[in-house]
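Model the whole thing, not chain by chain.
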Amino acid sequence: MSALSDKVIAISKPYFGPATEAFLNRQCKGHLNIDVTELAPSHVKELAKWVETSGALLMDAAKASEIAGKIAKL
Amino acid sequence: MKLTIKSKLVGGCSCLLLVILGVAGIGAFSVLSLRRSAFQTTRVGDRLNAESLEIQVHTLQAESQVRDYLNGIKTMGAQQSKETYLDEAEFEVNEIQNLAANLMKISPTEAVRAKFAHIPAAANAYTEALDNIVNNSGSNGKSEESKASLDAYEKAATRLSESAEDGEITGHDASQTSQMEIEATSKRSVALVTGVSLFGLIFALTMSVALSRAILVPVEHLKDVAENVSLGNLDMTVRRYSEDEIGDLADSFSRMVTAVKFFRSEAQTIQEEAEVGGGVR
């Protein structure tokens, strides 16, 4: 697992809890065609966009936007 | 700094304790002030009254000595009578002067002091009139000068008596004023303690309501969310009301609901995919 993947998981953990890895994996596989462990800096913007969109379906939109912002800054 | 429920409760209780201590302190201070004021004013009023009465007694005694002196001139001669009676009379006048000086010293106000200022003047006039009687006593009370000095003495004695009576009335008035001052201080103390107690009560009520709201509102919200989730309604927004333990609990709950939602949607997706795969077969 890359250091970037660890950082993204660490950022998302307080919001998604036990579903963090599964959620991120779904976004990476479904939209970026990669595994969450293969995340590279070039994927960050796209991942942040999909986390915001999909996250808003599971939680408060403001919170989803907050996570996306944090991921985008990586 | 994070305001926890513990710190809010400790802070709230400390504030209430401070208010209670403040009320108790002000109450104790008021009672002590009242006691001191009552003691001082009553003591001054009583002393003014008592010493004024003492002046009257000394005046009467001086007059009595002078009467004896005048009678003694006829029986034992001027010199013998003077030695027997006038020394006593002078002593009484000196006592009047001392008492009057003391009264002026302890008088609580300028107006009261002015009333007592008449007594030393009257006592001086009385002494002068007495000296004149002694100087004119050689004619055995028959000459014009002697009669005039006796009349002057009578007037001076009357004025001294009146001044002493005025002093007594002033002392009595001062006692009355003392009573009024005690009542005023008492009323002021009661008003102060009542005011501070009311403030404390309002403050305590406000604090209690604020503390209750700070704890109860987020707990009620979490209870609603938990009930909905337990009935299968996952479309609930968990709000974080405060940055304390209940806020942390809300975050944990929110995380749990998000995970459950995600896993449920995953399960549905897998089920749909399985159904689609089965249908194709």
